[in-house]
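Quick illustration for those who missed Monday's session on complexes.
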Amino acid sequence: MTGSPDTPKDGLDRFTTAWSRALLPGAPPEAVRELRPRLLPAARGLREALRARIPDAVAGRAAGAALVAADSADPETVGRTLECLDSHAACCLGHEGADPAVLRARAVRVGAALATGFAEALRDRTTTEQRAVARAALGAQNLATQALHESEARFRAVFEGAATGIWIAGPDSTILQVNGAMTRMFGGSDKALLGRRFTELTHPEDGAQTWRLHDELVGGVREHYRVEKAFTRPDGTVLWTNLTVSLLRDADGRPQYQLALMEDTTERRLLNLRLRYEATHDALTGLPNRVLFFERLEKAVAAGEGQRFGLCYLDLDGFKTVNDSLGHQAGDRLLVEVADRLQACATAPGEMVARLGGDEFVALTTGTDTRRGVDDLAERIMNALSTPVCIDGRELTVRGSIGIVEGPAGERGAAEVLRSADITMYRAKSAGGNRFEFADPEADARAIHRHRLTTALPAALENGEFFIEYQPLVRLQDGSVGGAEALVRWLHPQQGVVGPDRFIPLAERTGLIVPLGRWVLEQAVRQAREWNGALRVNVNLSPCQLADPGLVRDTERILQDAGLPPEALCLEITESALVGAEDEVLRPLRTLCDMGVDIALDDFGTGYSNLAGLRRLPVSVLKLDRSFTRGIRTSPADPVDVKIVEGVVRLARTLGLSVTVEGVETAAQAERLRQLGCDTAQGWYYARPGPPESLHDLVLADAC
Ligand code: C2E
Ligand code: CA
Ligand code: CA
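Prediction with calcium ion bound:
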């Protein structure tokens, strides 16, 4: 039974295939194959309708609807379907043996029903689609309205509640709306802003670029800009802001509104100004400090052509004494007074005074004629300092040394200029202070060289760059070598052998003389040991070493370690170091003397010592300065020098001291000095300072 309604089965298939082809004329076979299954339900419906005794209009309409459902909604579809039905109904869709004429007549009615069903289905589908679009459009509209509303509400909330000031201005920059924060920034009333043009709100501190950026924005050239801008509030006070202005365009892209966001930076700015003031001014005197001064100096030395600068670098003489003796408070008050006086000296345009720190001040003058200007400035400063300062009822004399650098802008950097002024100030100080000196490139170069040597000294000691030469001390009576003076030298890696006159003063200034002197003592004593005690050794002692509390202990230890008696050592100390020395200073020398170490008064005759004072000095040798032996060298000998030597010898005899003469260069000189009663001589006539071995040879030669 199952197969009977569908027989012949291939009739339905053939019809469906023919129908599909009819609907897709010229289409490739795959497209036809694809359409077939979608038409099959409709084909089956048509067959049912044709086979019914009374053709079923419902089945026909359903077939029409099925066509629409199969996406065959083309207007041609119905016509082609009807043709196909007409030609195939009899052969493909009828019962076996059915009357073809009857079938064709039925096909006409079924076709009409199909057309109706097709039209209905098409209408329904269109309606449904339209409804869907309308619904979607409506939905979309609702959503848009809601979103707009929400965004507007949000904008309102932001606008009103924002801590940032906001205004909206029209295309001509007239301010149309302002928010609460903006109103508050301007003192509580929006009258200062509403209806006014932004371009009216100028301020003297406006940079040129503020208004250039504004014009560009209004002209649509830029979308936004950000500037720091000041405004004057209605009460006259200044409002500093960070202002960001953005351009809002209309639908056609034309500039429409300006949206300004403003942040009040007045307090931050004041704080910054205060911090900047504190960072650039000296807390004690209120003067500009090193930082600010350096900024100004940098500007001055980099100024344009024809511009010059003059710098006075002032350091008070003896300020440390005031601080140490009267206390820091008095010192501070003195500095404040000096600062006030200096400030009064530099009031002209282009002049400034600053405190670099401690008791160091600078005064700067700039302009085209600083050559004369700086001279006047230095004079004014010296004058200002000349009146004593009264502190706690005491009158303090203030003196200062000034180093001056003057020159054209554009040649040297600020640091170099400052250093040159500093160096020059030191030169003024070493020349006795209370004066001003002008910078001199050669003096600067020497000072820099000295500075380099000074900084290299500590490493030189560690690296073993020092060595000692020995110069024999000869007994004038018999010409035998009694000892030798140890003289230190520095084998500098770049400069070769550097003499003690060049580096001993530097070592004294930095304190390195103490370890260096100890090293020389160690080496010299060890060398005396090598000589088996046959020669005494003389070692120079710097006045700084006298202040070293370890001097006596170190000397004792060094002698003990070498196994030498104290008598084998003579320490030479310059006369000037001991003139007027307090007992305290002399104590270590006295201890050493008591131990048996000889003490020689070096460079005797140059220190203007009070001869009577010699008695209290723990010395056993007077070493007459070279300058006196020089006069003995000439022939005839300088009668004054001869008298001096005679006098010194007589004095030495009275005090029980022996006399050594230095700088003996000729045999005649040696002979004359012997006749004058000197005990020991040293000089090139006998030997130049040399390696310890050369002494050994001399001693051996003596022995022969
Ligand atoms: P000084 O103690 O007066 O040493 C004598 C200086 O005269 C030495 O110079 C020596 O080379 C030089 N001299 C020796 N004989 C003659 C001569 O016949 N004619 C001339 N024109 N000069 C002669 P030097 O070695 O350059 O030492 C210079 C100074 O350096 C020394 O003067 C001494 O004050 C200091 N010095 C040297 N070594 C040391 C040391 O180890 N410690 C300390 N504190 N000072 C030292
Ligand atoms: Ca000496
Ligand atoms: Ca000497």
